[in-house]
Write a structure and sequence with these properties.
The complex is a heterodimer of chains A (about 500) and B (about 110). Chain A is α/β, with parallel strands linked by helices and about 500 residues long. Chain A has helices at about 40-45, 55-60, 70-85, 125-135, 160-175, 190-200, 215-220, 230-245, 260-270, 285-290, 290-295, 300-320, 325-335, 370-375, 390-395, 400-405, 430-435, 445-465, 470-480, and strands at about 10, 15-20, 25-30, 35, 65, 95-100, 145-150, 180-185, 205-210, 250-255, 275, 280, 325, 355-360, 365, 385. Chain B has about 110 residues and is of the alpha+beta class. In chain B, about 50% of the residues lie in helices and about 25% in strands. Chain B is built from four helices and four strands, in the order αββαββαα. The chains are: A alpha/beta (about 500), B alpha+beta (about 110). The complex binds iron/sulfur cluster (SF4) (2 copies).
């Protein structure tokens, strides 16, 4: 018989959610979870002494949902775990997106950046602005700095990429930060000298692939009228041949045309050597807003397609083919591990400005890519400053960033404050503003919330099924491990 | 108990539910009602005998059946949110201490230890 000390029971903070069949999901402050039956839950909230919880007492104490006399210890442990989970806040600001040009050789109908024609004037970053941009970036206190070149198509202004890379490396000789570079390119054009420059400076590529040729060409439209897909495939192979197979990752944009073809898109990714996919829904900016009727869909349809696609991906893994979905992988890290996982678009407070910042071609600095996209639509609500006139302190310690932080902690946003997924979720104030005109957002109507809620519901459905093989697949994504055995189908 | 005792239909598409403040807190009612603001325009007013009246006007396209089901959901959500508020009241103080402690500068944390 278990002997309990006769101490009163204290409840520690947690959130809960009634799951359809499985019971009540409890999540503590740092994201550890447990499922209780409805009876057990009712016992928990009514219990005054440990013995009233019976065999539940020790598991709940271990998970810091209840404490007996030693509340201090539980508080200490929870605060250490919470501090670890929020460690991404120490990297202020690590991701710096530089718009080398707003010109592009494509005119994708979902382009969030509302790109300009290749012949447009005054849309390129000048050397003076580029130098000032690097000087501001390198003042960031973050020990790791990633500079991501964006556009338009940034390679249309290649000299600026070289200038920024060389200047940042020069400054970093004394700073010793962990400095890295990524070029976001549509791969419509590639040059050998670019590839060797990237090799020398360890620059990787982030690109876009929307699926098979018909899917890709449908929305990723080349301004010269020829297939963008053919050039993408050719240049992908070219860069891989010089930079190695892992040098290019691809992002998928889901429109209503590939929404119901995701398994086929996934197979296409695999055929072209990708081992991960990010099932990314459309964002409400730029041309995507204008063309929403033609390319958009309801969040409910996205969630349905996500569930089917995730099942398909899991089934591939169960056959021994390693393939991961990146958003699920991120959320699994948050749900199943004690580690910190900052992600600019989904963290609390939001990563806008404090984890990532965007430097437009004209020197204007925005807290997020979406802020710059709103500016391109004529709304400079989120302008933090300009590298030509403003100091680092003025830009990164100004009212824009402070307002964003104050208003993007899920811990005190309405509905989020009581949501069981709070520990895994985040806020996107710039997106909220674009959706509803309110940086605190309007839940539950918010698409951002509906999407995240739907995705997390499904992940928990999978976790609570407790299928050992599926859980093994999830862990292989977290560990980035290929769980193939020798007998399995080749990848 | 019949449904009409829970929800009053004042005119087509306009409904009222009354909650006793002896049982429910204003916070719980605000929180539960807010969940319907995507489908209804919601107005909350003081009501007789220490109660609150929640008036809901359906937005475009919501059928009478869906509206009634959503409002029945509100009644359950209010109870649910009241439980959450009670839990919050019991644990809110500890939550604040944990957050404050977690974000203390390291030097201060060491001093505390
Ligand atoms: S989405 Fe990218 S490639 Fe397409 S038009 Fe916009 S900037 Fe160019
Ligand atoms: S955004 Fe939605 S899912 Fe995320 S914490 Fe807030 S209420 Fe929960």
């Amino acid at each position: 018989m278990t002997v309990y000390e006769k101490k009163t029971l204290s409840l520690l903070p947690f959130q809960y959610k009634k799951m359809d069949d499985s019971g009540v999901l409890l999540v503590n402050l740092c994201g550890e979870f447990r499922i209780l039956t409805a009876d057990e839950f009712s016992k928990l909230i009514n219990a005054k002494y440990p013995e009233e919880l019976g065999e539940l007492y020790y598991p709940l104490k271990g998970m810091h949902i209840v404490a007996d006399g030693d509340v201090d210890l539980a508080v200490e442990l929870l605060s250490v775990k919470l501090r670890s989970k929020k460690a991404y806040l120490k990297s202020f600001t690590s991701l710096h997106m530089v718009v080398a040009t707003a010109r592009c050789n494509c005119i994708c109908d979902y382009c969030q950046a509302s790109s300009s024609d290749t012949t447009a004037h005054g849309m390129d970053m000048t050397p003076e602005i580029a130098e000032k941009t690097v000087d501001i970036i390198m003042q960031s206190p973050s020990p790791g700095i990633k500079i991501e070149f964006q556009g338009g198509e940034p390679t249309l202004n290649w000299p600026i990429i070289e200038l920024i890379v060389k200047r940042a490396e020069e400054i970093n000789k004394t700073l010793g930060k962990d400095l890295s570079f990524v070029i976001c390119s549509n791969l419509m054009h590639a040059e050998e000298k670019w590839a060797y420059f990237c090799k020398e400076h360890k620059i990787s590529f982030s690109t876009s692939l929307d699926g098979p040729k018909d899917c890709h060409d449908l929305h990723r439209i080349s301004r010269d009228g020829k297939s963008s897909y053919d050039r993408f495939i050719k240049n992908l192979e070219f860069y891989r041949s010089i930079l190695g197979p892992g040098a290019c990752c691809a992002l998928l944009t889901i429109t209503k045309d590939n929404l119901n073809r995701l398994p086929e898109v996934i197979d296409h990714y695999r055929e072209h050597g990708f081992r991960k996919i990010f099932l990314r829904s459309l964002s409400p900016y730029g041309f995507a807003v204008k063309n929403n009727d033609a390319i958009g869909y309801d969040v409910g349809d996205f969630i349905k397609a996500y569930r089917e696609a995730l099942d398909y991906i899991i089934s591939l893994n169960l056959k021994g083919i390693y393939f991961a979905e990146l958003y699920t992988e991120l959320l699994l890290m948050r749900i199943l591990t004690p580690f910190s996982t900052g992600f600019v678009d989904l963290q609390s407070p939001s990563g806008a400005g404090i984890s990532g910042a965007v430097y437009d071609f004209n020197g204007e600095v925005y807290p997020a890519d979406e802020g710059r996209m709103l500016a391109r639509m004529g709304n400079k609500r989120f302008l933090m400053g300009n590298v030509l006139q403003d100091s680092y302190d003025k830009i990164f310690n100004g009212e824009v960033i402070r307002e964003l932080v104050r208003n993007s902690c899920v811990e005190n946003l309405s509905l989020c404050a009581h949501c069981a997924y709070q520990a895994y979720c985040g806020a996107d104030p710039v997106r909220y503003y674009a959706e509803s005109g309110d940086i605190r957002g309007r839940r539950p109507a918010s698409e951002f919330c509906r999407k995240n809620m739907g995705v997390m519901d499904y992940i928990f459905e999978k976790l609570l099924e407790n299928n050992e093989e599926v859980i093994k697949v999830f862990w292989s994504w977290i560990h980035q491990e290929d769980i193939r055995c020798d007998n399995c189908e080749s990848n | 108990m019949q449904q009409k005792e829970l929800i009053e239909e004042l005119s087509p598409g306009l409904y009222r539910v009354v909650f006793s403040l002896d049982i429910y807190s204003q916070e719980a009612l605000l929180s539960a009602s807010q969940r319907l603001n995507d489908r209804f325009v919601v107005k909350i007013d003081p009501w007789e005998n220490n109660s609150l009246s929640v008036m809901l006007q359906g937005k475009d396209g919501i059928s009478a059946d869906d509206a009634k089901n959503a409002i029945l959901g509100l009644i359950n959500d209010a109870l649910e949110d009241q439980v959450r508020m009670n839990l919050m009241e019991r644990t809110g103080n500890l939550r604040e201490i944990i957050y404050r402690h977690a974000f203390l500068p390291l030097e201060e944390r060491k001093k505390n230890i």
